[in-house]
Amino acid sequence: MASKSAGLLSALGRGSDPIVSSRFIFTVDGLLLGAFNGISGLGASFEVEKIVEGGQNEFVHQRPKGITWNNIVLRRGVTDSEAMYKWFKDSSGEKFAGNSNKIEFKSCVIMALEADGDISREWGIFEAFPVRWTGPTLSADSSEVAVEELEIAHHGLRTSTFF
């Protein structure tokens, strides 16, 4: 029995070793935006159309419609880099108006790093643009790290593993 499960695990490759989710870098059109300690929202879901069939009382037919991609939220301690805020600002205001009020979609990549700095997995994000930037909460009574967040909308992703 042990050899059967060992064979299944070896067929999965490195499947028994989960990726450590503590070090990430994020690029926008190939340019490094920064390193992040939290990324959430990697996911999607199908909208389901329900079809009721006359005379069929045991179930309702369900058919997939379109995919809805979750917004992705990037979170990190505030650094001396203004790249996150600059991308948000460039997608609105004067630069947005100067582009005839059209969003400039970007290609982005999230890379999960191993302890030695090697890339273990990456997620390529298509047609992304920022929808929310949140600056740090500042308080003289707190010793917490100042954190900023950037939320992006997108039109899909792909994933690659590097083991």
How are the SSEs placed, and which strands pair?
Layout: H1 2-11, E1 24-28, E2 31-36, E3 38-40, E4 44-51, E5 61-69, E6 72-77, H2 83-90, H3 93-98, E7 106-113, E8 119-134, E9 147-153, E10 157-161
Antiparallel strand pairs: 1-2, 1-7, 3-6, 4-5, 6-9, 7-8, 8-9, 8-10
Description:
The chain has 163 residues and is mainly beta. It has one domain (19-161): Pnp Oxidase, Chain A, CATH 2.30.110. It is built from three helices and ten strands; from the N terminus they run H-E-E-E-E-E-E-H-H-E-E-E-E. It has helices spanning 2-11, 83-90, 93-98, and strands spanning 24-28, 31-36, 38-40, 44-51, 61-69, 72-77, 106-113, 119-134, 147-153, 157-161. The strands form two sheets. Strands 1, 2, 3, 6, 7, 8, 9 and 10 form an eight-stranded antiparallel sheet that branches. The longest helix has 10 residues, at 2-11. The chain starts with a helix and ends with a strand.
- Fraction of residues in β-strands: 35-45%
Note poorly predicted spans.
none
Q: Which second-level CATH architecture applies? A: Roll
CATH topology: Pnp Oxidase, Chain A
Mean pLDDT: 85
Total number of helices: 3
Number of domains: 1
Q: Taking Cα atoms only, what radius of gyration do you get, to the nearest Å?
A: 21 Å
Biggest beta sheet attributes: 8 strands, antiparallel
The overall strand count is 10
CATH class categorisation: Mainly Beta
Question: Which overall shape is indicated by the principal axes computed on the Cα atoms?
Answer: globular
Helix content: 10-25%
Helix-and-strand structural type: mainly beta
**Gap between N and C termini:** 27 Å
SSE string, helices as H and strands as E: HEEEEEEHHEEEE
